[in-house]
């Protein structure tokens, strides 16, 4: 084990992308993950072109991503009457130099895990180790407090500690003891996957309904050559009165379809049968749409928050997972420039905390689904031609504003220099 490694709390998408990045630039690191075993948990998640660019730079390419998902071709909003509100091409078809990938979150997570084990070694990723807090040492380094699966406790000394421990982050709780509880705006999501025929472009993200009640679905696998069926990820969502807060048990639990199918009765068009889609799922998970109020800083001396621990956001913009990967790369870039130092963490914090916190709040206001709010407000969701309700230019401007804020602006991304120049290594780091 290297002396004074960078310690990473949490081996989710953000923690593993950080570990792979640090390894790439020659910085020793260790990941402590609370789960006793890594399992392919979750359903669909989108990797936006800005994140796919970073994955390619990490040596995770098209073949790897095609094994856990498929390139997205279209993003579309449809009104309750089945008529199109908005659609646009995505990824390469939109003019990005990199595709957008719709992937199975669990299989993608395992891809990162397998790569991390292979490149950094199994000893660098410790499972069954929950980081419960930290102590800042007088010399500027940090000790992470670790609780092991057998309930024993230990301390790990490191140069820096990266809190990539998700929305319920223990590191964030210590850094911001007065932070408000989790924020729930009233929306409940039920998520599942069903094998079905892909529609429209064959790889379309479709959001259908209103901003208070909708389904979102998109394929997360290439079609099976024998059956033509793809694994379709779907999210059924309703917004309820949240004045009494979240009263059901837990944040994430398996539920029967009968719990929520009644909300979507009659949601059938000649091109889509929502009751059949949700009714044929193997298992369904309920989780409230939650995030956290932004905090003024993600840094406390040698400790930094990243990914959902820093900026858990509503999934309306499909950018939580992508941002975790971009965070990891931006941190790597700051470390290349400033070394394994607190200055690197300060540079990261100064660059990202403000704008990404704004994105969290923007997603709370429905993110790109805001167009459905506009349709609802202007015509109650019933229209023949969307141009009469929201003129094309207004729709295009709305989406352009959202994408610029989320870092999806095409020209800017295409022209941007790599976040980490190829072959860059930290000067003081261990040679390759
Ligand atoms: C089980 C699971 C299923 C998910 N499913 C979906 C999905 O279907 N669709 C979607 O859009 N998003 C899903 N997400 C969220 C999505 O993965 C994240 O928003 C995004 O990838 C950001 O990743 P992250 O690494 O910051 O956080 P996370 O993915 O939440 O990873 C955090 C990791 O830290 C570990 N951890 C937590 N506390 C500690 C601690 N104190 N010490 C050490 N380790 C700790 C967790 O076990 C987890 O592995 C899921 C997350 C999880 C954990």
How is this fold's topology laid out?
Elements (H helix, E strand, L loop, with lengths): L5 E4 L3 H12 L4 E4 L11 E4 L1 H9 L4 H5 L2 E3 L2 E5 L5 E6 L11 E4 H16 L4 E2 L2 E8 L5 E7 L4 E6 L1 E4 L6 H6 L7 E14 L7 E6 L3 E7 L10 E10 L13 E3 L12 E2 L2 E2 H6 L4 E8 L7 E2 L2 E3 L2 H4 L8 H19 L3 H23 L5 H10 L12 H14 L4 H6 L17
The protein binds flavin-adenine dinucleotide.
The site of flavin-adenine dinucleotide (FAD) has 30 residues, from helix 1, strand 3, strand 9 and helix 8.
Please tell me how large the radius of gyration is. 22 Å
The residue ranges in which pLDDT falls below 50 over 5 or more consecutive positions are none
Q: Summarize the main sheet.
A: 8 strands, mixed
Give the strand content.
25-35%
SSE-based structural type? alpha+beta
The mean pLDDT is 93
Helix content: 25-40%
Strand order, sheet with most strands:
6-5-14-15-16-13-20-17
Total strands: the figure is 22
User: How large is the count of helical segments?
Assistant: 12
* Terminal CA distance: 16 Å
Q: What is this structure, in a nutshell?
A:
By secondary structure, the protein is of the alpha+beta class. The protein has twelve helices and 22 strands.
């Amino acid at each position: 084990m290297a002396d004074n490694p960078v310690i990473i709390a949490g081996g989710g998408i953000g923690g593993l992308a950080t570990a792979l990045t640090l390894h790439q630039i020659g910085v020793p690191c260790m990941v402590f993950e609370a789960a006793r075993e890594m399992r392919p948990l979750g359903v669909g998640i989108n990797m936006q072109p800005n994140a796919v660019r970073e994955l390619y730079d990490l040596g995770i390419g098209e073949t790897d991503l095609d094994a856990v998902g498929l390139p997205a071709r279209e993003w579309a909003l449809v009104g309750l009457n089945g008529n199109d509100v908005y659609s646009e091409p995505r990824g390469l078809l939109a003019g990005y130099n990199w595709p957008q990938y719709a992937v199975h979150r669990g299989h993608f997570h395992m891809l990162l895990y397998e790569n991390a084990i292979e490149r950094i070694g199994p000893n660098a990723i410790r499972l069954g180790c929950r980081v419960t807090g930290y102590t800042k040492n007088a010399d500027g380094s940090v000790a992470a407090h670790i609780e092991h699966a057998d309930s024993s406790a230990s301390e790990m000394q490191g140069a820096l500690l990266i809190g990539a421990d998700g929305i319920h982050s223990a590191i964030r709780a210590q850094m911001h003891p007065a932070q408000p509880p989790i924020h729930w705006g009233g929306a409940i999501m039920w998520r599942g996957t069903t094998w079905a025929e892909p529609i429209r472009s064959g790889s379309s993200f479709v959001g259908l309904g209103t901003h208070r009640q909708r389904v979102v679905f998109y394929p997360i696998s290439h079609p099976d050559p024998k059956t033509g069926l793809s694994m379709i990820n779907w999210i059924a969502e309703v917004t309820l009165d949240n004045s009494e807060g979240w009263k059901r048990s837990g944040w994430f639990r398996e539920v029967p379809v009968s719990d929520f199918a009644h909300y979507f009765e009659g949601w059938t068009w000649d091109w889509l049968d929502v009751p059949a889609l949700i009714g044929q799922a193997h298992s369904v998970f309920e989780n409230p749409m939650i995030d956290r109020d932004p905090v003024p800083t993600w840094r406390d001396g040698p400790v930094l928050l990243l990914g959902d621990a820093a900026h858990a956001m509503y999934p309306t913009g499909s950018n939580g997972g992508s941002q975790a990967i971009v965070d990891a790369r931006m941190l790597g870039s700051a470390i290349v420039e400033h070394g394994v130092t607190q200055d690197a963490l300060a540079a990261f914090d100064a660059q990202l905390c403000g704008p990404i916190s704004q994105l969290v709040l923007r997603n709370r206001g429905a993110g790109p689904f805001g167009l459905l709010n506009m349709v609802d407000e202007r015509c109650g969701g019933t229209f023949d031609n969307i141009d009469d309700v929201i003129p094309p230019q207004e729709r295009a401007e709305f989406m352009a504003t959202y994408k610029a804020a989320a870092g999806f602006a095409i020209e800017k991304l295409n022209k941007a220099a790599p976040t980490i120049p190829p072959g860059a290594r930290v000067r003081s780091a261990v040679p390759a």
